[in-house]
Amino acid sequence: MSIPPVSFSNRSQRTAEAPISYLIALAKANPQLISFAAGLVDPMTLPAEEILVICQKLLKDPPTAREVLQYGTTVGSRTYRQAILDHLCRLEDKPPSAMSLNPDNIVLTTGSQQALYILADILIDPGDIVILEGPSYFVYAGALGSFGARLMTVPMDQDGMVVEEVDKLLHRLELRGLLPRVKAIYCQSYFQNPTGLTLGLSRRSRLVDIARKYSKTHRLLVIEDAAYRELRYEGQDLPSLKSFDPDNRFVISCYTFDKPFAAGLKTGYVILPTDVGSALIEQKGNHDFGSSHFCQAICHRALTEGHYDSHLKTVIDGYRKKRDVMLSAMKKHFPSNPQIGWTYPQGGLYSWVSMPRSMNTSRTGSFFEDCLKAGVLYVPGEYCFQPDEEGSIPQNHLRLCYAVTPTEQIEPGIRKLAEVVRSHLNRV
Ligand SMILES: Cc1ncc(COP(=O)(O)O)c(C=O)c1O
Predict the structure, then answer these.
(1) What b/e sequence results for 92-124 when a residue is b if at least 16 CB atoms lie within 10 Å of its CB, and e otherwise?
(2) pLDDT per position as a tens digit, 188-208
(3) Where are the domains of the chain?
(4) Architecture of domain 70-307
(5) Other beta carbons within 10 Å of 182
(6) Tens digits of residue pLDDT in 341-355
(7) Pocket residues for ligand 1 (CB within 6 Å)?
(8) In the CATH hierarchy, which fold is given to the domain comprising 10-46+310-425?
(9) Sequence-ordered alpha helix ranges (H) in 77-149
């Protein structure tokens, strides 16, 4: 008797393997490749010594050890959430009352990815609409797609998401009777993945105003992804979208300690309106009834005992140098051509390179193949876009991450990439 196949859920069938898994596997299988693909943090900067000191303190004292090695609560430790709120208020230079926040508006999550995923879980029914930047963070686009969300993109310029286009899109959707299906606007407010661009100051309050304006049949939420906020290498920090939501009604902000501190701890947090918080906690109970209590305790100590701040200074210095090496190598080696350009990120981990439209950087194209032969790997920009109304996707971009590549390999990697660019330019 033949054994029938498993009947997977619709959500499972809507979920494809993340494209980055293939690229990471490719880099692992070919260690000679210079990889600008994976957006991992720099392994050489991870805070092993600081975490060793913290762990010794946590585990040496038996009552503390017993507490941190036990389950915590679904929402997470209150004292840690208070420390996070204090940290956030320092960043914003505002008291919690100015944003109507208290520690109960914070939920500790397993990385910010879990917060983003559970938000999709509690907000999206198949056919619901989420508005996001084009290009955007492809992992979250994939997660939203698995819930059956319709993803509608608005363009970006040097100041990030063009929020007036959000207004126009919502207006068009309202005319078509589709406003009730629009659940959220997903916006990366700092050093966006994949472009490295930051949402301009005046656009921040405007985006929250737009969400307020179109909150007619239900509250339209802004999901602010601030994963890279603290990795700023130059310029002044900008107030978050959350800071323009004084009554704590419209903005949900997702943060992580993974990028600026230790990715292996997978510790993030989300700041949300009270009613959204309750729904998220209930759903998180289904997921794990609480993120790692031990990892929370480590991050809590790091935050309150100064390890976090001093480590952040070190990683910022390291990433700034790597960014500069990559940007000057691109300037030196890329052919000068008005159709070739790249972003100048003031923080985060990525630069976004645009090629002439005729040059196809997709994974199945000869450009990607030639880069592999030359020994260099990047993320094809096609993954970061949603199909337009004709079903087409721009295929002339590359995402380059400067964080993981050893500094001395960055210039040789860019030189190899530039050679492939030059040879393909000669063909078109
Ligand atoms: C824009 C963005 N948001 C969220 C995440 C999730 O990271 P984590 O779950 O480690 O906090 C990432 C990871 O690369 C990201 O790039």
Answers:
(1) bebebeebebebebbbbbbbbbbbbbbbbbebb
(2) 999 999 999 999 999 999 999
(3) 10-46+310-425, 70-307
(4) 3-Layer(aba) Sandwich (3.40)
(5) 24
(6) 999 999 999 999 999
(7) 39, 111-113, 137, 188, 193, 225, 227, 256, 258, 263, 268
(8) Aspartate Aminotransferase, domain 1 (3.90.1150)
(9) 78-92, 111-123, 138-146
